[in-house]
Design brief:
- By secondary structure, the protein is of the alpha+beta class.
- 35% of the residues lie in helices and 18% in strands.
- The protein is built from 17 helices and 22 strands.
- The protein has a 5-stranded antiparallel sheet, with helices on one face. A 4-stranded antiparallel sheet has the order 15-16-17-18, with no helix packed on it. A 4-stranded antiparallel sheet has the order 19-20-21-22, with no helix packed on it.
- Helix 5 packs antiparallel against helix 11.
- It starts with 9 loop residues before the first strand and ends in a 16-residue tail after the last strand.
Amino acid sequence: MNYPHRPPSDLDPKNGEPVDPPSDLDPKNGEPVDPPSVSPEEQAEIDRLANEDDVHLSQRNGLHPFEALNGKVSSGKMVGMIKVSTHSDFHSGTGYGFEEIPDWELPSPFGRFEIRKMIGKGSFAAVWEAYDPDLNRALAIKVLHPHRRVDRRLVRRFIIEGRAAAKLNHPNIVRVHETGTIDGVAYIASELVNGPELQTIHPLGPFYEPRQAAELCEGIADAIEHSHSRGVLHRDIKPENILLDSTTDDEGVRHAVPRLTDFGLARIEEIESRVSTIQQLVGTLVYMSPQQLNGDNGGEDKGGRGKSSDIYAIGLLLYEMLTATRPRNCESDRIQLLRASEKIKPPISLRPDIHKDLSAICMRCLAYEPEDRYRSAGELKADLRRFLDGQPTIARPLSWPQRFSRWANRNRLAASLMVLAASSMLVAIVVQWVSGSRLDTKNTQLREAKSELIDANARLAETANKFGFSDAFNVFQLGHLRLADELMNSLQAGYPAEWRKPPSQLLRAEIDSNYRLLYKADYPLRDIVSIPGTSKVILGGDSPRLNIFDCSTGKVVDTIDTPLQRVDALAISVDGRFVAAGGATDAVTDVASPWLIDLTNKQIRMLRSTGPTTVEALAFSP
């Protein structure tokens, strides 16, 4: 998007002229420097915290955002109810919870800032409108709630948010002026934007004309390209994190300017490259890419996947602005979202007045595989600009007649000469085609039959896999882990191509995390005891021999031979030194006696207690 008019900048207190926001300067040479980095340990803690809560601050004025920009409502007001998606909601997909935040006031003055009013609060922090008398400007002050400041991890996460955003300076990103502490209270001072949040879903239909939606997404893509170029991945692009500012052109027409905010889940690549973290879900579920839903947070930017997840989220925003519906019509289940990601309908199928080029741009953003999306947010921005300028887009390559038609309208003389030359070539082509038009009918029929056979086999494999996967999923839900494991193993062996699809991979991972075959004996096992304080267990069954198995290595580390024909019952002492073993009656004496085994030296002695039947249970007294 072209920006002949940037959003209003700060004013010079001496002459009232607009000035650019100040950057951090090196005290030695006066050159701008990047904000200080954070330690790898801090980044690891921030990533774990990012998975705990996802706070949505909503400005619910109920009107079209362009009406708010034109002065029909008082923008910038937020309601008191705070929508919070909790950690458990995030993973189980059960919905959202609500948290009551105690009322409190930020003292005025707060350092040099004059506090005017609270303009919003979330689960972690509140935002206040303030005035900076030193620079003669209004700004927003973000401060953690008092009961949150006792958690040092949250304070570190808060500092990371400020530092991530402070690396960025772009007309479509809410500018962070400074971060710091006043009287021990950490704060983020940023540019004050009074516009409403972006609204995409509405029961009455789309808010935006297709061209307006393309212009807004162009601005967002430009902001994300700037963020990525500075090594910052946003990872939580959604309507609640985009404010609509306004600017007026030379003709007095007001235009909406999207402003990206809330870098609370952002990841700084220069830190991430030094930190190895466990894969977690980070972001808002319905705006996650398939890779994020699979546990790749976009921080592990292998092959650009982290950046492509931000591009996927922009595609979701564009889809919602064009159709007022979600492309994946499910919000509560990760597996359902993954399946829906493979069969998204083009927006033009829901709204025929959308240009096919814009629909194709949207669908390229929403491609399932990262390599099929735009390579960068800058490439997406450039394609949106080509659409707005009426030029061919790379999302939907034009056929050569369409390309020629557009080119001919701009170059009529050259087009006429080309048509004349093409006509001569066409005559030669037609003559050649007529002379070679007799085809071998039998070969054609054979190729068609072979193609039909391949298609039939593919349909058969897909149908068999679907029924097998459905059976495996159902028995897994019922808790029959071993049967689910056997079904998935048979699917993997019989239909390897279908098995590699994400739903099968996800179910395989769920089964492996809950069920694992430790040891398989060539005779029935009848009892097992765990040696206290170790990772070892003792196994007994239809054999005189006891096997000591180490669960950490998956190997039998020792054996003990007993006088029993088979071992029916085992018990272990509290200190783990002795194990008692019992079994069937002796063939000679016709009585059954338990045996006591010292594990330190493998000495075995018979206990005096005897009985006429098989020993089926043993226990040590406390």
